[in-house]
Every structure is written in structure tokens, then in C-alpha cells.
Amino acid sequence: MTYHVLVQFDVPSDKREEFAKAALFDANGSLQNEPGTLRFEVIRDEHNRNRFYLDEVYEDAAAFEQHCRNETIVEFYKMIDSFANGPLFLFKGNRVAG
Model-level pTM greater than 0.70? Predict the structure, then answer.
């Protein structure tokens, strides 16, 4: 059963591009180096250009926990730590299949 995570970050307007680059670094590294990562999208809010979402899907909760321990996410947080407000987890959970 797939495991889904939606995370929100708010950033100052002068740091939007810097955050986007860091988030894409995390997304691409996760997709390339973590077999349990199925989807990792970086989304900018259409009404608040300073708000970003990371929409992530993993094979299971264990794959997400592994993601949280990998070097890519550590580097991501180093890149954004001085200016980003987040992460705010909007949801975590398993897909309901039927």
C-alpha cells in the first residue's frame, strides 16, 4: 500500500528560486537514489507564490522513513534552513485501495 506525504514550506519572496532549486535537488536525488520513492513533486501555490508543497509518494512508510535518513534530505535542509518556514506536514497516510 503506497504511503503519501504532503509538506508545506513558506519562504521569503527573495528566496523563492533558491528554495525551488533546493527542493528540486531533494526531489531528483530521492527519485534517482531511493528505490522506494515513487513520486516527488515540487509545487508552488497558485495564490501564494511564497508557499511551496512537496507532494511525495513512497512504496510504504518504511521507504519514507529511509528517505528521512538519506543524505539528500540532510543537504536539502542545510540549503534552506536559514530562510524557510517548515516543514508543515499537511498529511501523511496510506492510500486506500478497494
Answer: yes
Please confirm whether the linkage preceding 35 is cis (ω < 30° from 0): no
Helix/strand/coil (H, E, C) string of 21-67? Answer: HHHHHHHHHHHHHCCCEEEEEEEECCCCCCEEEEEEEECCHHHHHHH
Query: Which pLDDT value is given to residue 98?
Result: 80
Residue numbers of the chain with a pLDDT score lower than 70: none
CA quadruple 26, 53, 37, 24: dihedral positive or negative? negative
- The residues, ordered by sequence, that sit 6+ positions from 35 with a Cβ below 8 Å of its Cβ are 59, 63
12, 58, 65, 74, 76 from 69: Cα distances, Å: 27, 14, 7, 8, 12
Please tell me the number of Cα atoms within 13 Å of 44 on its side-chain side.
14
The DSSP element (H or E) to which 87 belongs, if any, is strand 85-94
Read off the DSSP letter of residue 96: P
What H or E segment, with its residue span, contains residue 91? strand 85-94
